[in-house]
Amino acid sequence: MMKQVQKRIIILALLAGEIMMKSGAEIYRVEDTITRICRACNIPYVEVFVTPTGIFLSLDKGGDDSEMFTFIKRIKGTGTDLGKISEVNQFSRDFVSTDLSIEDGMKRLKQIAQSKPYYLWLRILGAAFACAFFCLMFKGTIKDFPCAFVIGAASYLLSVSFEQFETNYFIKGFCCTAFAAFLALICAATGLGDNSGPITIGALMLFVPGVAITNAIRDFLASDMLSGLARAAEAFFVAISLATGAGVVMRLWVLLGGNII
Amino acid sequence: MTYFLQFIFGFVSTVGFAILFHVPKRNIFMSSLVGGVGWVVFAYCRNDYGGALLGCFLASCVVGLLAGIFSRVYKETATVYTIPGIIPLVPGAGMYYTTLYLINGELSKAATTGTQTLLMAGSISVGLLVVGSFFKMHYTLTGKFKRIIKKT
């Protein structure tokens, strides 16, 4: 009987941790949430080790006849979904302070896991606005603005369709920035926009690994060296993929006789 | 006036990112405000005071500070405000120019820009971290004071 309860607690805590990790939370926050959930179920011994690719959790109820449980959860695929992080945080606060049962908690967590991001058209509009205004922020002109608006929407749509095919992040970053840089060069060459530079920067900003960089250094300084290294490598390779994507297209453009305005 | 325009630009682009990152609806305005203010601080430092590197540091300090205050006021995690807020500061332009110099074969220029880009990325996280640890110290101190007051 006791074992069943412990098993359910482990599954609940691991699900909460998995949702947070997949949404791009920091390591210490995930470890803290899992520990709090287990402590709230009267488990005195909890040890948890979280890396960006897996969660290791072991717990012991204490007493003579209790066994120690250890579970490993593999995490695949990361993204950024701040809504889920905020909801799981709220959930763990509720779970600790009120006497929510494990079944109800499980139901609520499953609801959170299935919650969808904003509608596709709204996200495309968001990407287009972000790209266009970044273009203005980096000294783009009024003529560049509509070009960046369209290119931002197009390259975000391309990245969404790449996610459907489940390609890896390198190919995705490479193709999206190559596409955006190509369109920006065409815009500048046909006279629709003044400079291809600000437009390309605007499109690059949509894919830069800002979240990974900050999380990596925070993990390092919180002495989670393993996760810090993993995240730093992720940020580095994403940056490399973006730079090569834009770079290859610009180089080919120059080689084929165009000039970069 | 130019800085007011810069604020609008930073604000709107952060709104875009807040939508992409699925920030809860009630927090979109606040997190965009954080992003706009951070960008204005960065733009001011870059143009008139101290250069881009200091600008990144100060701007991310401001972002961290505002995020800490808002997370306290609205009972949210600070991440909801910091991640969209720092996105305008992330040096995408530095990456672009590094690539451009590499393509043209200007290696020394590429090395200079690349190093500055890396340092900017580092100073963003250091700024956030400094403010974050101050907030942590503040919470532990106030917690201790409350416990002492309760005991006496």
From TrEMBL, chain A:
Family according to the record: Belongs to the ThrE exporter (TC 2.A.79) family.
Taxonomic superkingdom: Bacteria
Family annotation (PANTHER family): SUCCINATE TRANSPORTER SUBUNIT YJJP-RELATED, UPF0442 PROTEIN YJJB-RELATED
Subcellular location: Cell membrane
Name of a matching Pfam family: ThrE
Phylogenetic placement of the source organism: Bacteria, Bacillati, Bacillota, Clostridia, Peptostreptococcales
Organism encoding this protein: Aminipila terrae
Main localisation: membrane
Transmembrane portions of the chain: 118-138, 169-192, 199-217, 237-256
Residue intervals of the Threonine/serine exporter-like N-terminal domain: 12-253
BP terms from Gene Ontology: succinate transport
Bilayer topology annotation: Multi-pass membrane protein
GO cellular component: plasma membrane
Gene Ontology molecular function: transmembrane transporter activity
Keywords for the protein's UniProt record, in alphabetical order: Cell membrane, Membrane, Transmembrane, Transmembrane helix
Name of this protein: Threonine/serine exporter family protein
InterPro entries: ThrE-like_N (IPR010619), ThrE_Dicarb/AminoAcid_Exp (IPR050539)
From TrEMBL, chain B:
Sequence intervals crossing the membrane: 6-23, 28-44, 50-71, 78-98, 118-141
Residue ranges of domain Threonine/Serine exporter ThrE in the record: 6-132
Pfam family membership, one: ThrE_2
GO cellular component, one term: plasma membrane
Alphabetical keyword list: Cell inner membrane, Cell membrane, Membrane, Transmembrane, Transmembrane helix
One GO BP: succinate transport
Localization, UniProt: Cell membrane
Keyword Membrane applies: yes
InterPro entries, per the entry: ThrE_2 (IPR024528), ThrE_Dicarb/AminoAcid_Exp (IPR050539)
Similarity remark: Belongs to the ThrE exporter (TC 2.A.79) family.
Protein name per UniProt: Threonine/serine exporter family protein
